[in-house]
Amino acid sequence: MSIKTRTFAALSSAVALSFSFALASPAHAADAKAISVKDAWVRWLPGNLPAAGYVTLVNAGDKPVDLVDISSKDYGDAMLHQTVSSGSSQKMVMVDKLTVPAHGQVAIAPGGYHVMLEDAKHKIAPGDTVHLTLKFSDGETLDAPFAVKPPAQTK
Ligand SMILES: [Cu+2]
Question: Which domain holds residue 41?
C-alpha cells in the first residue's frame, strides 16, 4: 500500500464516522414523549414570499393529542393553515388545532395542511435548516429541525 492510498483510507473512514454520528443525533429529540415528528421540511420561495412548512406528527401514546401552537425563532410568524377547495378555486383557512389520533399520525402535507411561515428573521435559502417549536395539548413542546428545500420540491 502506498502512502497515498493509506491517507485516503484513513480520511474516508473519518468521513463515514462523522456522517453516521450526524444521522444518529436528531433521534434523541423525541425520547420519552408521546409525539414525534418525521419528514419535516420547508418549501422555500424567493423574495419575501411566505414559505410553507410540512411535517408528519406521530402519536405513540394512548390518548389523542392536539397541536395547539406553532412558533419559530427563524420566522416572525408561523400559522397552521388548511387549503380548502371551493368549486374550481382554492383558499386557505386558519386552523386552531390539529388532532393527532392515539397510536396514529397526521400529515401536514401539500394539498392539505401547511404551516405558513412569514417574516423571515434572517436570510434563509434551500439547503438551510430552520427550527419550528410545536406545542401540544398534553403540555409537550417539540423543537423540530426542518430542512429547507427549493420551490420545485413537492414532498
Ligand atoms: Cu397559508
Answer: 32-149
